[in-house]
Amino acid sequence: MREKRKGEKQRKKENNTEKIFFEMDDNTRKIKFIFDLDGTVTSEETLPLIAKQFKVEQEIEKLTQETVQGNIPFVESFIRRVFILGKLPVNEVADLLETTKLYPKLVDFIQKHAGNCAIATGNLECWSHKLLKKIGCESYCSDAVVENNHVVKLTKILRKEQVVEQYQKEGYTVVFIGDGNNDLEAMRVADIAIAVGMTHNPSKSILPITNYLIFSEEALCRQLNQLL
Ligand SMILES: [Mg+2]
Fold first, then answer.
1. Which of 16, 130, 150, 161 could bond 185 through an S-S bridge, CB–CB 3.0 to 4.6 Å?
2. By residue range, what is the domain housing residue 205?
3. pLDDT tens-digit map of 132-162
């Protein structure tokens, strides 16, 4: 029997129905770029921004540093963060986050290739939806119940690796781009992991599983275009 060639149509008997499938080669693969939000697509961290505006800076700064360094597990950090920030008016937080500074060339890439891009952020949807709409690709967030304009209950903490796995099951080659300890699992599961050190140095924990380490927006856009 001759070897099957890449890109060749194959026929396969399955459950008594004959399926035609196409074995994808490098030119026909489906690729999905999944981006962390904070410090990866935004050029400033959103949490300190909220903290400054609502004067809970010290509590949040301490928590952010510990989390970025990997000293506090992400889930614990997240719950503590929501406890501190949940009291703030949700609409005001969303309006503030809409003004977060972004990497313009990267956002341009995302908008040009929106079908190939997604954002995975641990931040709550009710805080981030305006900012995410501005970026303009599909997104995955954590969820909470909001009552009287305040967060009253966490209902989902996003596990970014599950977003990666979902796309892989759909046949995508997944590239994950992140900078923090909370991106570690997603980057480990992804087919290609890109660590960025554009806003701050990438968390040390992600370096061993990183395929590319990138320190500028231009270099990142160049790399993404090469992977397309
Ligand atoms: Mg980040």
1. 161
2. 30-227
3. 999 999 999 999 999 999 999 899 999 999 9
- Separation of CA 195 and ligand 1 centre (Å): 10
Number of domains comprising the chain: 1
What is the sign, positive or negative, of the torsion defined by CA atoms of 21, 23, 26, 30? positive
Q: Which two tokens stand for residue 117?
A: 């891009």
Q: Ligand 1 center to residue 180 CA distance, Å?
A: 5
- Give the domain CATH number at 63: 3.40.50.1000
**Cα-based torsion angle of the residue sequence 168, 171, 175, 179 in order, rounded to the nearest 10 degrees:** -20
Task: Convert the pLDDT of each residue in 210-225 to its tens digit.
Answer: 999 999 999 999 999 9
Cα(92) to ligand 1 centroid in Å equals: 22
CA of 68 relative to ligand 1 center, distance in Å: 8
Q: Euclidean distance between the first and final Cα of the chain, in Å?
A: 34
Note whether residue 126 is domain-resident: yes
